[in-house]
Specification:
Length: 87
Amino acid sequence: MISKYSQDVIKFLFSKTRPHVITENISKLNFEAMKEAGMEKVIFNKYNTLVEGGEWKMKKQNRFALENAKKTFGAENVFIVSNTHER
């Protein structure tokens, strides 16, 4: 059972973390423009964003974009999440 406190936290996190920018792939994102617009952090989903489904390695364009995001926002403000148990 989810407590009232947990529901409030979930609502808050959802309001702060929903996609603000959607693109064909991350290499097309303009991280400088995102930062200038007030974004402070970037969260990427590992599968089907950084890594194509079923693959283990990032494509070169995604590695470059990830490094660009780290340079723009600082590595401490760039997060990679995964909703799978695969390693």
